[in-house]
Amino acid sequence: MLRYVFRRLLTAIPTLFVIVTMAFFLMRVAPGGPFNQERGLSPEIKANLEAQFGLNDPLWLQYVHYLGNLLRGNFGPSYNMPDFTVTELFAKGLPISVQLGASALILALLLGSVLGTVAALNQNKLGDYTVIALATAGSTIPTFVIAPLIQLLFGLTWKLLPIGGWGDGAFINKVGPVLTLALPQIAIVARLMRGSMIESLRSHHIRTARALGLSDWSVVVKHALRGAILPIVSFTGPAAAALLTGSVIVETIFSIPGVGRYFVDAALNRDYTLVMGTVVVIAIFTIVFNLIVDVMYAVVDPRVRYD
Amino acid sequence: MLKNMLKATVFATTMAVAAGAFYTPAFAESVYNRGTAAESESVDPHKTSTVYEANVLRDLFQGLVMQDEKANLIPGAAESWTVSDDGTVYTFKLRKDGQWSDGSPVTADDFVYAFHRLEDPATGAEYASMLYPVKGAEDVNTKKGKPEDMGVKAIDANTLEVTLKAPTPYFLEMLTHQATYPVSKASIEKLGADWIKPGNLVSNGAYTLAEWVPNDHMKLVKNPKFWDAATVKFDVVNYIPTEDRSSAMKRFEAGELDSYDDLPTEQLADLKTKFGGQIHVGPYLGTYYYAIKTDKAPWNNPELRNAISMAIDRDFIAEKVWQNSMLPGYSMVPPGIEGYTPAMAKYADMPQIDREDAAKKILEKLGYTPEHPLKMEIRYNTSENHKNTAVAIQEQLKPLGVDVTLLNTDTKTHYSFLEQKGDYDVARAAWVADYKDPETFLGISRKASGNNYSNYNSAPYEAAMDKAAAAGGKPEERMKDLSEAERILVDDVGQIPLLYYSYHDIVSSKLHGFVDNVMDVHPSRFVSKD
To answer: Are B246 and B264 in contact (CB under 8 A)?
Structure first.
C-alpha cells in the first residue's frame, strides 16, 4: 500500500507540471492584461508597471522564471493587491476556507448518510418521501438563494446569527456559511446513500445474513453499510477538493475572507500570479483527495487491493 | 451549613465581579464600521488606483492640502501657501506641529522624497501623471530626466517649493489626490517592502493602520500624534468590504455597518421607502458615455453621430434602467464644478418625440431606412445595467432603421480592446473625476490622450483647449475657454454623453458629518456618531 501511495504521489508531479504549464499559457492567451482598466494608463506608465512585474520579458522567460520561483515555493506578488504576495493571501485565506469546507463536508457526510439510510429502510413510505423531497429541494435550490434566506431568517428576523463577516473566526459567524455549503451536499449524500443502501439491502450476502437471524442493527450497520458507503467515498474526493478550496458565492454573500473568491476575481482581474496560485492549490487538493479516496476504497472494500 | 453558604456567596460574588470586569471594557471605544463595496488594492499612496483606497488613504495620510466634509479644499500638512505672480511657483509652509505616527516631524524632505518616488519608473505608480504638471516630473517618469531636476525643493524643514511647467489652476485640487500624499522616507529606507504592513505603516493622518485581513476588514485606530487629534471622534474605523450589495443592506439593517458606499440600484425605490432619509443619492462628478469611432466610415460623419445621439432617450434610461441612480446627461462635463457652465447638446430641451423625428429625417437623408438599415454594434463591459442600457438603446433606435447588435466582454478585454484602438462602432465608457476641474473630463477627448477611445481629432477643439491652458493664470477666462471647447466637442458629437453618475450611499441617521458632495468624499475625521 505504501508503495502504491508513493507511486501515485510521484505520478502527480508530471500531472501538476502539465496543469501549471497549460494554465500559464492559457491565461496569457486571454485578451486584456492586469493593467487594463476603465481609466486607461499611458503607454509609459504601463511599461513601468510591466517592467516592475517582469511582464516585459519574453513569454518563455516569464514561464521559466515562474517555474523556478514555484520550485522554491514562491508564488510571486499579487498584481492587483501589491501589498501582499500570493503566499500571504493564501496563508490568510486558505485556513478559513478549509475550516468552513471541512465542517460542511463532515456535516454533509454524517447527516446525509443517516438520512439516506433512513429513507432506504423506509422505502416508499413517508420517511422515504420526506427525505427524497428534502434532498430534491436541497440539490435544486441554488446556494445564492439559500444564503440570503439564511441571512434574512436567522440574521435579521430572529437575530440569532450575524449577517456576514468572519468575526475573527467566532463560531456564530461560521454557522450560516457552513449550513449554506452543507445543504446541497447533504442532499447529494442522502440521495447517493439511499440508492446504494437499497441496492446493498437487496444483495445476496444481506439476504444470507438475515436468514442467519442477525439483528436488523447488525445487518444494516455491520454488513449493508460497508457496501453502501462506496459511492459516498467516491463522491467525497472531488467534493472535498471543491469545498475545502472555498466557494465564491458563499464567501461573497457572507463576506468571508477565504480563497474561494480569488478563483474568480483573480481570473477577471488577470492577476496572473494569483490565478496560477489558485490553480496549483486546487490541483494539489484534487490529487491528494483522489488518492485518499482510492486508499479509503481499499480500507472499506476488502476486494480492492493495490499491492 | 451557614459557613458553606457564606463561602458560596462570596465565591459567586467574586466570580460575578471578575466576569463584569472582564466583559466591561476599561473605556468605551467609539467605533465606526464603514462598509465599502470593494476591497482596497493597496495602502501605499503610490500603488493606488481606486476610489476605495482613496477613502482609506484620506484617513491614514495627509497631503499638502485636503478636503473637508463638503469636499472643499482645506489646509492639510501645509498650513498655508503662496503662488507666484506667473502661477508657476507654489511655496508651501508645512505645519510646525505636523508629525508622523512614530513621533518624528513631517518635513519638506519627506514630500520631496515622496514626489520623487511617485515619478520613479521603478515604483510603477499608476497615478504618476498626477504630478505631471510639475516641472521635470513627466521626464523622470518616462526616463528622460533625473529626479534632482524635478521642480520640487525643500527650502528648509518646513518650506516646500514646487515649480510647475505652466500655470495649472487645478494643481491644488490635484494635490487632494492620494497619489500626492507624503510617505515617510525614514520608514521606507528602514523597512523596505515591509513598510506597508499593519503595525509598521508610519502615516501622518488622523488614523494609523492596525490590521488588514483582505476581504474581511481593515482596522484603523486613532493617531494620537495627528496635529488635530483632539477633534477626531472615532477611536477605531473599520473598513468592511461587502461586495454583495444586498448583503450589505442587511448588514446595515442589522447594525453591522454604519454606512455603505453603494446600493443595489435596481432596488432603489424600495430602499428609499424602507430606509427613508438614510439613503443618500445626488450628483457625483462622473460621466457615463458612449465612445464612437469618429475616424471610421460611416461614423466619421458628425451629422450621423448627432442623429444617433439625439434619438437616445436618456430620461428613459436614467429612470427605468438605472432607477434614477443616474441622471440624464447631455454634456461631457457634469454639472457641479463651481464657476463652470457645461455646454449641453442643443437638443437637450427638445421633446423626445421631436428629437426622434429630426433624427429620422437625418438618417433618411443619409440613406438609412428600415429597409436599408444602418448597422451599429455596441460593445460594453459585463454588468447587468450596462447590458440593459445597451438593450434600451437598441430598442430606441430600431424604429429609425438602425440595426443595433450588442457585444459583451469582461472589463479587462473591453478596455484592452479600446486602448489598442480596435475596430468597433460604439463602446461604453465612463469618466469619473479625480479632482474638481472640467479639464479632467475634456482632456480625454484630446488627440494625444490615451483615453481618447473615439479617436476624436479636431483642430478647433485642440486650439480651444490650448487657449484654455494658456489662460491658466486667469481662472474665469479659462473656464469660459473650456466651456467653448466643450461646445465644439458636444456639437461635433466627439463622444455621446448619456448619463451623469450619482453617489448613492446608505448612512445611519446616527452618523453626523457625513455630508453629501459631488466628489462623494467623507473623511472619517469629520464623522461622529450619537
So the answer is: yes
